[in-house]
Write a structure and sequence with these properties.
By secondary structure, this protein is an alpha/beta fold. It has helices at 2-14, 37-44, 57-62, 69-80, 88-95, 102-106, 113-124, 132-143, 148-163, 167-174, 180-187, 223-227, 229-241, 257-261, 265-279, 294-300, 303-306, 314-323, 327-333, 353-356, 363-369, 393-396, 398-415, 425-438, 447-456; strands at residues 203-204, 214-218, 244-247, 288-291, 324-326, 346-349, 376-378, 419-421, 443-445.
Length: 460
């Protein structure tokens, strides 16, 4: 009884965001948000203690209860109970959530917040009114980013202009006239890259066949395989050096995270099924599936949840998830010998949210880096606070994304390091582009790049 009273009181405190009077439950429209009962039960675990508040980037930035995990849970539960309507103001607070899952790490009650926010967004998506710009950006998200060939084609004019030295001048003179979302998209483009990034081979043998340990399938990623293919190649070098037989399934596709976080759960399920078919071919199943992109890894490890009600794929999804490892998790599991090359660099380390919070695998990269001779790792304040990338969040919520990136970069500056290591391409693009905008001397490295230098030398 006390809990119900507290909930009702908090609903009023959080919002003034809609009609606080109960509305008639109906399956038509969204007078009531129809959540899966298993998802709805997640909201009941919240005891309103507030320990999530200092972990939440948006609440830390603006101090608004409705932009905290606790506040958003009240809004979502209120909609499901028919106490709050999904007004534009309510949806605005839900949209501002990064889904970084830091609140889950902080929560003593084990609230699985991301299932609530993700299903709520999926249920709200069909009712959303989208501007032409919103539809255009969503079209890029859904129909360009997940497909490497399309992404290469879209980037080709930019790459040509970069090669001939005209891109910086053209972008500088025209970007300021674009809407904020498109300005951010242009800003995030890596300054250099191959005109047309080559694909990986389908298989790589261990350096010494006699030392073969295991068969590993590499998940190459969509954006990662176009803009950060060198990290994939260095990942393969490390794995084959440690005795792994590495395969790269030709039919591997996007992990579906872009669609899932955007509210298109069925699109995400289609990608999940395609990847399960690609990686778990009968008689060709790998011992492990490795990825080097934290956001993709979190998406891959969520396949069993996405497909839990699919009779044809539910069990296969569990098998798939049981084989998925972040590259640093796997490297540790392989019990590698100490690297032999000194890396005389001073770095700091940013925890990618989807590695430290979503996958709970934040420690392996740091432990591996500490084994590298002459590498100095300076602790970063708020290392596990989101940088504002959050998948495509920095393109849909550019103002909050920029504020969080600047907060992160100021902490990096305080370390004195001009190199920051992180395990996610989204974080890398976000922090590098914002550092460039702010005129901060900063370069980004993936843990794999540091480890590759430690094992093979600087010029390998």
């Amino acid at each position: 009884m006390t809990q119900t009273t507290t909930c009702d009181a908090n609903l009023k405190i959080v919002s003034g965001l809609g009609d606080a009077k109960p509305t008639k439950r109906t399956s038509q429209g969204l007078d009531v948000l129809q959540l899966d009962s298993r998802t709805y039960d997640r909201s009941l675990s919240c005891v309103h203690c507030g320990l999530c508040l200092p972990a939440c980037p948006t609440y830390t930035e603006n101090g608004k209860e409705a932009d905290s995990p606790r506040g958003r849970i009240h809004l979502m539960k209120g909609m499901a109970d028919g106490l709050i309507k999904p007004t534009d103001e309510v949806v605005k607070h839900l949209d501002l959530c990064l889904d970084c899952q830091a609140c889950e790490t902080a929560c003593p009650s084990g609230v699985v917040y991301h299932e609530l926010i993700e299903e709520t967004r999926a249920k709200l998506a069909p009712t959303r009114k989208k501007s032409f710009l919103d539809r255009m950006i969503q079209g890029v998200f859904y129909h360009v980013f997940p497909y490497p060939t399309r992404l290469k084609l879209a980037l080709l004019p930019v790459r040509i202009l970069q090669k001939v030295g005209l891109w910086k001048a053209i972008a500088g003179s025209t970007t300021k006239f674009l809407p904020p979302q498109l300005q951010k998209m242009v800003q995030m483009l890596p300054p250099t890259g191959a005109l047309w990034e080559s694909n990986l081979a389908t298989s790589y043998s261990p350096t010494k066949a006699s030392e073969k340990k295991t068969k590993v399938a590499l998940f190459p990623g969509c954006v990662g395989s176009v803009m950060f293919q060198d990290v994939n190649r260095k990942t393969i070098d490390l794995l084959t050096h440690l005795g792994c037989d590495v395969v790269v399934p030709k039919a591997a596709t996007c992990c579906g995270a872009i669609h899932h976080h955007g509210g298109d759960d069925e699109g995400a399920r289609q990608f999940a099924r395609a990847n399960i078919d690609a990686f778990l071919k009968p008689g060709e199943e790998p011992d492990m599936i490795v990825n080097n992109i934290a956001g993709c890894g979190a998406g891959l490890k969520d396949f069993d949840h996405l497909l839990r009600d699919d009779p044809a794929y539910a069990e296969r999804a569990k098998v798939f998830v049981s084989k998925v490892y972040d590259v640093c998790e796997l490297l540790e599991k392989l019990d590698p010998p100490a690297p032999t090359h000194a890396v005389k660099k001073t770095v700091t380390y940013h925890h990618a949210c989807h590695l430290v919070h979503a996958q709970r695998a934040g420690d392996p990269p740091l432990r591996l880096l500490k084994q590298v001779a002459s590498l100095k790792v300076i602790e970063l304040v708020e290392a596990d606070m989101c940088c504002g990338a959050a998948g495509t969040y920095n393109l849909t919520q550019p103002q909050m994304a920029m504020a969080l990136a600047e907060r992160k970069i100021r902490h990096i500056e305080q370390t004195g390091a001009t190199l920051c290591v992180m395990a996610n391409v989204g974080c890398a693009m976000q922090i590098q582009s914002e550092a460039d905008r702010l005129g901060v001397n900063l370069s980004i490295l993936h843990p794999v790049e540091v480890l590759h230098e430690a094992y093979f030398g600087a010029h390998a």
